[in-house]
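2024-03-11 09:14:02 DEBUG pipeline.ingest accepted 1 chain
2024-03-11 09:14:02 DEBUG pipeline.ingest length=282
2024-03-11 09:14:03 DEBUG pipeline.predict start
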Amino acid sequence: MGTVLRVGRVTSRTPVLRIRGPLHTTRPDTVAAEEPLEIRLAGTPLAVTMRTPGDDFDLVHGFLATEGVITGPDDVAALRYCDSVDADGRNTYNVVDVDLTPGVPVPDTGLERNFYTSSSCGVCGKASIDAIRTRTRHDVAGDDLRLPLGVLLGLPDKLRGAQEVFDKTGGLHAAGLFTAAGELVALREDVGRHNAVDKVIGDGVRGGRLPLSGHVLMVSGRASFELTQKAAMAGIPVLAAVSAPSSLAVELAREVGITLVGFLRGDGCNVYTRQDRIVLSE
C-alpha cells in the first residue's frame, strides 16, 4: 500500500463578480474542492462522505478506526482506488475499496446500515440512535497528560499557521494533532471538520501509533459529539476547539474522561471537563 497524499483537485478556479463598495470587478477566485468519496469493503459499499480530495487513504483508515471497524494498520490487508470514471473515461479517484485482513469482523453493510456523511453535519442516515454511539477500547480517563496553559493557548496560531489550502480559499476546516509540548505531529484540512479529524487519526492508524495517548487534538470549528467520539476512539485525552462545544460533546467528554476545551482564542478558553490536566502555572 503506497501513500497517496494528493489525488484529485484540492482547489479549483472559478470566475466571480467581486463587489467591494462601489468597485465591481470580474476575476477568477480559488475555491476548495468538494467531491464524494465512496468507501467499500471488498467491493460492497459501506459509506459515502463529501470531502476535499487528498489524504484519502488517511481518511479511510481514520473513518474505519473511529467507527470501530479496525484497530490498527494490520487490520487492513489492502486498499486501492477503483472503477470510478468521469464522462471522458478518466479515473475520478472517488472510490476506495478496502480488503480487511482475514479474521477481522466485517460490519453489517446491508442497505439500512449504510450511511452518508456530509461536509456540514457529519454522520447522517444511520439506521438507529444506538448505531451512532461507538465504544472506545482505550483508557482515555487514565491518561496522565499534563498540558501547560501557555502551550494550550498557543495552539490556535500554530494550527492556523500550518493551513496551506485555507490561505488560498478561506473555506476549509483544519484538525491538528499536537504533543503536550505544543509540537505539531499531523495536520489535515477538509471541507468537513469530521473528515479533517479522520485524516489526522488515520495518519496515526497507518503509522501504528494508536492509541494517541498524551496528545491534543485541536480543531478549527466547534466541538461536536461526533468529534469528541472520534477523539475517544483514537485514545486522545484532550480535544480543543476554537468555537463552542455542544451539550452532548460535554456529556460524552465527561463520561469517557476527555479534557474538552472550547472558545480557545487569544489569551483565554473554557475548560469544560477534566480541568486537572491543564497546568495553570509553571
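2024-03-11 09:14:41 DEBUG pipeline.report Confidence is low (pLDDT under 50) at residues 1-6.
2024-03-11 09:14:41 DEBUG pipeline.predict end
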